[in-house]
Fold this sequence. Notes:
By secondary structure, the protein is α/β, with parallel strands linked by helices. Helices cover 49% and strands 14% of the residues. α3 crosses α4, α13 packs parallel to α17 and α17 crosses α18. The structure holds phosphoenolpyruvate and magnesium ion.
Amino acid sequence: MERLKGIGVSSGVAIGPALVAIQRTQVIRFPIAPDRVARELSALDRARARSHDQLVQIRERIAKGKGSDLAAIFDAQLLMLDDPMLIGRAATVVCEERVNAEWAVQRALDEIAVVFDDVKDPYLHDRKGDLHDVAGRLRMNLRDEKGAARDLLQDLDTPCVLIADELTPSVVAQLDWTRIRGFATDAGSRTYHTAILARSLGVPAAVGLHDLSQRIPPGASVLVDGDTGDVIIEPSAAERQEAEARARLRSAPAVIRTIDGPLQTTDGVEVTLQANIERPEDVSAAVAAGAEGIGLYRSEFMLVGGPPDMAAEDEQYHVYRQLVEGMAPRPVTIRTFDIDERQLDRPLVDAALDARWFPEQERAQRVGHAGLRGIRFGLAQPHIFKTQVRALLRAASHGPIRIMFPFVSSVQEVRTARMLIDQARRELEARGITAPPVPIGIMIEVPSAAFTAPLLAREVDFFTIGTNDLIQYTLAVDRTDERVSDRYEPLHPAVLRLLRTVRRGAARRGIPVAVCGEMASDPLLLRLLLGCGLFAFSMTPGALAMARRVVQETSAAEMCQVAKKVLALATVDEIERPLTESFATVSK
Ligand code: PEP
Ligand code: MG
């Protein structure tokens, strides 16, 4: 038994056999039944044959052109492909450890790579890159076997708990979540996108567990507590019972004091609560939780793992229409694709991209979050942006839609994006389609946007503050990096001052401002936001009941006094004290 401490990000307890996924190489280790071994071996054989044909073709193409020297590289790769240390060893791993072929190839590669590390000859040492290339090709060809991951999941005797170093939404989308009880990752923080997705899937999850994925022995069982962040490898019977009992207690429904009419604070200030969702099917959870609309639909999730034509205008139109009709007459705010470079390895996006902006090798290397993402991506790829806008404008005939741009950092970006919207509207008109006027807003999630809120407010119809990113960029703390997660501080004076600037900027032009970051789903922070004069929020549907109760028990005027006081303080500890004291009085 071993207990590790992470951050609980999605409530509940999951217990089951561990399924280990290494996202660095995107390889998942699946234990397989004895009668599946032969299928994995023939899949390995087919992948080897396909890789062989591809390498021969590449070599011939290059040899015909200028680079016969280069062609020799592929001769070497062909030899590596047939080397028993790679394929032979992988086949042995499949048989002996009863794991999937893709994992076995990765294992064989890791073993040979160690040998290469010790080689002094610089020529041989440099061949390590080729070896990685060959193994990568084999894995790609194995993964191309249709539905391989789903198939392997279905084959597991019992649903499992997924343990990964890192989990991107594209891996999440490959998985069948009815077969996964929960997950834990080495990386991550509360605002990690996959953590957000876990909450919307209702799957218990913990993140920020450092080297958990390396510590799990094959076949181990594991317990993930999504509230405390604890992960126990090989839990005892007593630990299982205790965790399950705690989970049952926590999931007892919150008692909500219901009232007629709009939601108000104790002193009569009206507050709007909407839902953040990632998938169209989450609309029912939002409605059931009493959301007054969708404040944030993260549209980019529909690109991840979707069918290849998902980016087509008609496909998007149907999704948006389904959303608006499901929520009608409540409004739906759809943010244009907030794709970042991490998500660009997908064939669907690749096919549509302009290669000038995304050279293949660079893309693989860059994993920062301040690159070509959000509205920058839309402006760099206007055809993708306009396709989305046309679909949105068409769906607007079926109910109230608002369009929102993510990751805006300047007025110029807003103007260019609005110009593209006008163009998209004209393109529809040329097809005989007239769309109703649609409010255009922006996310305030980059410090430059927050500082220039008064200028941006002249250009748009509404603001939504994305505190997840705003905190990350203001404090220069990567929200996916568990090593600095203790520095990710919503109560930092810089964050609070920026929130005030944004609220004032919006008020000066009389445009509405809402908060859609995770900050609003923490009761203590929600009260502070109310005190800062912010009265519209959008959050995961699961947090709405809590938020409603907090609003009904809070006096906006009293919190305004607390907010004034804390805005003059210098450290997080100093700020936290009066806040906690004010909370203690209401929570009695
Ligand atoms: C945010 O940044 O606060 C936000 C809501 O957007 P996301 O979490 O999708 O980056
Ligand atoms: Mg964001």
